[in-house]
Design goal:
The protein is of the alpha/beta class and 381 residues long. It contains 13 helices and 14 strands. The chain has helices at 11-21, 31-43, 54-64, 82-89, 108-121, 140-150, 203-212, 247-257, 260-277, 305-317, 333-336, 346-354, 366-380; strands at 47-51, 72-75, 93-96, 127-129, 153-157, 165-166, 169-170, 179-183, 196-200, 217-218, 235-236, 292-293, 299-302, 355-358. The strands form four sheets. The protein has a seven-stranded mixed β-sheet, with helices on both faces. A three-stranded antiparallel β-sheet has the order 7-6-12, with no helix packed on it. Strands 10-11 form a two-stranded antiparallel ribbon. The structure holds pyridoxal-5'-phosphate.
Length: 381
């Protein structure tokens, strides 16, 4: 079976992790800051805060922006459930903005209309969370401008998009957002097994997220309510969590980040090859936003809704490990119980009805890619 995604682990990666195991620090040592620096170097952001997953990073990003009960958060319905869940975990209400049918990202026109209505009703969101679906940036020029106009804070869910660019800007430089979050789960672009990083240009937000990942505890005497009792002294000044990344994960991340450009170049070459090879088939290839250079986490084709299940099952039977990203969040039972249902976000639902993610990862060989193309041809014949 050719999987839809797969991590790439080199002998250098193995050596990096083994060296940590033989060192004094398994957690809270030098590797986590080194990994954070690798991510800020790649993205151009001023600060990076590494945690044990992107879900954790999204959660502390929302907390750092003060999202709480009585507030609203908006995100895309076409995402992994974690994007929406973190808003509710903060006690906020969550709503969705429908997607653009070609890019699968939040539609700026739908956002503009929804913001205008919300402003009239006095129900503007505190936080907007665009998702860079498949590794292609959402239209951040337009989304960022709208957010500024309405005073909405922005957290980019860039779980798919480390190494992506929009024009000259790397995703994660936070030029049009407050915070940007990356995932390092094994199916994503590069991995720490589990892990996430939040980037920001705001030193206060970075410090707040660094406290929230470690119990809300500080050793900064400037933040304390009384003079230090001595060198051992710390204070808990907020309600925080243990979302820390281990040194093992960070060492793997440092080693993986050194290959980021090569990995994204290979994924891009494979995506371009799919675009060319699939041109004659009865399917829709992913749409591209002008100026966006995707990191190509996923390559999603869309087939006629009536044929999707049969095509999917034929591909699986043919040894092609296809998948579907994503079942719209608002159609999940937990979210239906919050009042959402079919018809709420029709573009997202139409997207889901035809979507199939086909194999795409740095280690996919040209021969295996040709097998995928041939199998798709047979399944659609
Ligand atoms: C993978 C993913 C997450 C969660 O990432 P973890 O690191 O597994 O917590 C969140 N949002 C999106 C869009 C994702 O693809």
């Amino acid at each position: 079976m050719i999987p839809y995604g797969r991590q790439q682990i080199t002998p250098e990666d193995e050596a990096a992790v083994l060296a940590v195991l033989r060192s004094d620090w398994l957690t809270q040592g030098p590797k986590v800051p080194e990994f954070e620096a690798a991510v800020t170097r790649a993205t151009g952001a001023a600060h990076g805060v590494a945690v044990n997953s992107a879900t954790s990073a999204l959660h502390i990003a929302c907390l750092a922006l003060g999202l709480g009960p009585g507030d609203l958060m908006w995100t895309s319905p076409v995402t992994f459930v974690a994007s929406a869940n973190v808003g509710r975990l903060c006690g906020a209400e969550v709503d969705f903005v429908d997607i653009d049918a070609e890019t699968f990202n939040i539609c700026p026109r739908a956002l503009e209309a929804k913001l205008a209505t919300a402003a009239q009703a006095g129900r503007l969101p505190k936080v907007l969370m665009p998702v860079h679906m498949c590794g292609q940036s959402a239209d951040m020029a337009r989304i960022g401008a709208l957010a500024r106009r309405y005073g909405v804070r922005v957290i980019e869910d860039a779980s798919h998009a480390i190494g992506a660019r929009l024009g000259e800007r790397p995703v994660g430089d936070c030029a049009r957002s407050d915070i940007c979050v990356f995932s390092f789960h094994p199916v994503k672009i590069v991995t720490t097994a589990e892990g996430g990083v939040a980037t920001t240009n705001d030193a206060m937000l970075a410090a707040a997220m660094a406290r929230l990942r470690s119990h809300g505890v500080t050793r900064d005497s400037a933040l304390m309510t009384e003079p230090s009792h001595g060198p051992w002294y710390y204070q808990q000044i907020e309600l925080g969590l243990n979302y820390r990344m281990t040194e093992l994960q960070a060492a793997l991340g440092v080693s993986q980040m050194a290959r980021l450009a090569d990995v994204v170049a290979r994924r891009t070459a494979l995506a371009d090859a799919y675009d060319a090879a699939l041109a004659g088939l009865p399917l829709r290839r992913p749409g591209r936003l002008e100026q966006a250079q995707s990191s190509w986490h996923l390559y999603v084709v869309r087939v006629a809704a009536e044929r999707r299940r049969a095509v999917f099952e034929a591909l699986r039977a043919d040894g092609i490990g296809v998948n579907v990203h994503y079942i719209p969040v608002h159609l999940q039972p937990w979210w239906r119980a919050q009042g959402f249902g079919p018809g709420d976000f029709p573009v997202a639902e139409a997207y889901y009805a035809g979507a199939i993610s086909i194999p795409l990862y740095a280690g996919l060989s040209d021969e295996d890619q040709a097998r995928v193309v041939a199998a798709l041809g047979r399944a659609l014949a």
